[in-house]
Task: structure prediction
Amino acid sequence: MTYKPRPGILFTKICNTHVLIPNREAQQYCPRILRLPLLWAATWEALEKDKPMEDIYRFHQILTKKSDEEIRTKVDGFLAQLCEQGFLIATGEDDAS
Result:
């Protein structure tokens, strides 16, 4: 599955903490602020830059030294969770999978 950030979500840093803040445009889909750990903040930035999912998986694998299957499970699960919370929009199946 591929995803894109929902319009109206501001990604910023407050007091050295990365957060996603929905503005009025996105508030009906995600009414809360979400704090992101550093690795997931980098993942969000990659999604904003429209990086391919394979690049995101590779980035996680380099940083965490975990298996490809484990990385894909964690990243896909996290992105699906963000989609359920309204921060991301599912855009369809990933052609590279």
Observations:
- The first helix runs from residue 38 to 48.
- DSSP finds three helices and five strands in the chain.
